[in-house]
Amino acid sequence: MRRFEYKDQKSNKFWEIEREGSSVTTRWGKIDTSGQTKTKDLGTDAKAEAHVDKQIASKVKKGYAEVGEGLPPVEVKATGGAKSATSAKTGDGPQDLADGEETQVPGSGSRSYTLKNVGGVYSCTCPAWRNQSVPIERRTCKHLRRFRGEAAETERLGSLPARAVSTRGAKEGAPKVLLAESFDPDVHDPSGWWMSEKLDGVRAWWDGKRFISRQGNEYFAPEWFTEGLPDHPLDGELFGGRGEFQRTVSIARRADRSKEWSELSYVIFDGPELGGPFENRLAQLSELVEAHAWKHAKVLEHTLCDGLDALKRELARIEALGGEGLMLRKPASTYVHGRSESLLKVKSFFDAEARVIGHEAGRGKHKGRLGALRVVLKEGTEFKVGTGFSDAERADPPPIGAIVTFRYQELTKAGVPRFPTYVGVRHDHDWE
């Protein structure tokens, strides 16, 4: 096993990891104790190897140091006759590739992607880089931005293009809103970011005259609800309270400008055209609220995050109150149109086990393969799991009777997991 240790005034911990084929075993605990051990089967040797690399990178970033032979540096391979080179250790800040070099970086889950520099053209094998409709020398992605740093990519491109907003089903003139990436504690440091509650409402863009959805559909708010709102765009959410999403949707989608709009408020996230860094825009919005005393609109409260522990505490507090999660906003960030890592969503997910009781055939692109697993919880609740599968897993799904692990957001009032996602077969679980 490869062993890593973390020592400071408060901690004296170790962490070990070992791969055997597709199986990965980790052991952790206080130094001079036997600790705890966990074994996970990743399905394939490649997935297991990528998982090990990602876990090691995460520990090193948190301050763990390998004991014994030392942590191997990130391997950078040369192509096109260039000499081999070695980059800085993972987690040591921005790095770069010389002409003709390439390197592997962790993606989401067990995936990994290859970054290359060929004649000053940087590329990545991830779908986000490949599917951009701009010349290859103008493309970037979050993996390149993390590896090279935001400043280096901005200097190379002049400005960082945001990920495109999906226009599927959108009407002409639909707003191009800022969309969030997911927070990853192994990648993102929340220290100094602006933290706010993630509202369980309806996203609404105020264009100066009316509310419209991301798809360009109008929300028919009464005039008394919008009275005093400015003639420039605002980005926010129609919110009816925690746990009232369905009620909020039913009110917002009505076309009769009903008095039930009094149950809602417009919570403003940003003023896209106010200019300046995020803090300035937020201050301008607060001044507008004070000057006009909007009855049905307010600015979302933001507080500075002191670090990961503070983020976890606030997330636990909001979830205990029935909230959906948190949002993190990068300090001094501009408003961009599209998906951006300047805005991160933070939510809790839970893992559980279920027994496979049936297979449902796929349709469309999954025709002839698995569409969804029908599963049952130990207490008898039945439901379907239809996402999270690789193509190989859809072609050869877990057999009936297998115990599988799935991830979900929360339970409905009926006890059914919301948004279940397949994780893998649980070989070490005793169902009985």
Describe the structure.
The chain has helices at 45-61, 127-130, 142-148, 150-157, 223-226, 245-252, 278-292, 308-320, 391-395; strands at residues 2-7, 12-20, 23-30, 36-41, 65-67, 75-78, 85-86, 101-106, 112-118, 121-124, 178-182, 194-198, 202-206, 211-212, 218-219, 234-239, 265-270, 297-299, 303-304, 325-329, 338-346, 350-361, 370-376, 382-385, 403-408, 421-425. The strands form five sheets. It has a six-stranded mixed β-sheet. A five-stranded antiparallel β-sheet has the order 4-3-2-1-5, with helices on one face. It has nine helices and 26 strands. The longest helix is centred in the N-terminal third of the chain and has 17 residues, at 45-61. Strand 20 and strand 21 (338-346) form a beta hairpin. Mean pLDDT is 83; it is low at 69-92. With 432 residues, the protein is of the alpha+beta class.
Structure summary:
The protein is α+β, with helices and mostly antiparallel strands and 432 residues long. Helices cover 19% and strands 32% of the residues.
Index terms:
q64v53_bacfr protein fold; globular; alpha+beta; 432 residues; D-amino Acid Aminotransferase, Chain A, domain 1; six-stranded mixed beta sheet; five-stranded antiparallel beta sheet; 26 strands; 4 domains
Write the layout of secondary structure elements.
Layout: E1 2-7, E2 12-20, E3 23-30, E4 36-41, H1 45-61, E5 65-67, E6 75-78, E7 85-86, E8 101-106, E9 112-118, E10 121-124, H2 127-130, H3 142-148, H4 150-157, E11 178-182, E12 194-198, E13 202-206, E14 211-212, E15 218-219, H5 223-226, E16 234-239, H6 245-252, E17 265-270, H7 278-292, E18 297-299, E19 303-304, H8 308-320, E20 325-329, E21 338-346, E22 350-361, E23 370-376, E24 382-385, H9 391-395, E25 403-408, E26 421-425
Parallel strand pairs: 11-21, 17-18
Antiparallel strand pairs: 1-2, 1-5, 2-3, 3-4, 6-7, 6-8, 8-9, 9-10, 12-19, 12-20, 13-14, 13-16, 14-15, 16-17, 20-21, 22-23, 22-25, 23-24, 25-26
